[in-house]
Amino acid sequence: MLALAAAPALAFAQDASPSETEAVANIAECLVQGPPKDWQRLTMLIEIEKPGDPTGRVRYLATGPNGQVQAYTPCDASKPALILLGERKQMAAERAAWIAARLVLFENGKFELHYDYPK
């Protein structure tokens, strides 16, 4: 499981900043604790009401081999989200103005990190 936590640093380094990649590795250490044994994809969804809000709503989902999705609780219900929310301090103002973030970890160690912005 620790290999998964380290692997995201190599996955999409050109898309994520070094700071974001390190944050994802720290988040992954927690996300991989608690999902069903046959998971293929773990997703953390964060939604905040307005850019810069210190807290919001977070959901953790595990996707199995047949595409079935189920909610689960990682090692800590708030720690992974707080890590990503705290990462905004390292971002340029326009990039930090997100209102939703989706982090997807794949069983092979790759990850995708997407932000949604107000319209």
**Annotated CATH topology:** Murine Class I Major Histocompatibility Complex, H2-DB, Chain A, domain 1
Architecture in CATH? 2-Layer Sandwich
The number of domains is: 1
Mean pLDDT: 88
Q: What's the N-to-C terminus distance?
A: 38 Å
> How much is the radius of gyration in Å?
14 Å
Helix content: 25-40%
CATH class: Alpha Beta
Number of strands: 5
For the record, what is the CATH homologous superfamily label? Answer: BH3703-like domains
Category from helices, strands and their pairing: alpha+beta
Spans of at least 5 consecutive residues with low confidence: 1-14
Instruction: Please report the number of helical segments.
Output: 5
Order of helices and strands: HHHEEEHHEE
Indicate the overall shape. Answer: globular
Largest sheet report: 5 strands, antiparallel
Largest beta sheet: strand ordering:
3-2-1-4-5
